[in-house]
Amino acid sequence: MIYVASPYSHPDRNVRHTRYVQAQQYTEYLINSGEVAFSPIAHSHPIAAFFEMPTDFEFWQKQCLALLSVCDTMHVLMLDDWDISKGVKAEEESAESQGIEIWYVSADDYRRAKWGE
Fold first, then answer.
1. Which of 22, 35, 52, 90 is the most exposed place for a label (fewest CB within 10 A)?
2. What are the structural domains of the chain?
3. pTM beyond 0.85, yes or no
4. Angle, nearest 10°, between helix axes 13-32 and 40-51?
């Protein structure tokens, strides 16, 4: 199973929503390519928005890392600020400590593969 890590937290609600959509798009691409994939952002964003829950990694960390632990591979979706994201960094460290393979995927790479752009 592939765990899709991507940045999410941001003070601007529109930025969080855009990141959610991008995580959904990449996860859909993986699933339609025959992979089993899970994105914590695609799963948690609607729940957090509907129930007005916190949007920071500290709140969601227990959920994210537990699900990561059952995955074989982690794909890091390199959206804006992925390299300074506290959540992505914690997920990378957790994956490395468990021997989970990490792939780094630029948004441009998957767009070209999916839409021929």
1. 52
2. 2-115 (3.40.50.10400)
3. yes
4. 140
The DSSP annotation for 7-44 comes to ----S-HHHHHHHHHHHHHHHHHHHHTT--EE-HHHHH
- Spatial contact of 54 and 44, defined as CB atoms under 8 Å apart: no
For residue 62, the one-letter residue type is K
Q: Which amino acid is at 109?
A: D
Residue where the block lists tokens 């600020």: 81
- How far, in whole angstroms, is CA 106 from its chain's centroid? 12
In whole angstroms, how far apart are CA 107 and each of 68, 78, 94?
21, 6, 23
- The total of other beta-carbon atoms located within 10 Å of residue 56's CB is 12
* Structure tokens belonging to residue 72: 């074989």
Q: How many CB atoms lie within 10 A of CB 11?
A: 7
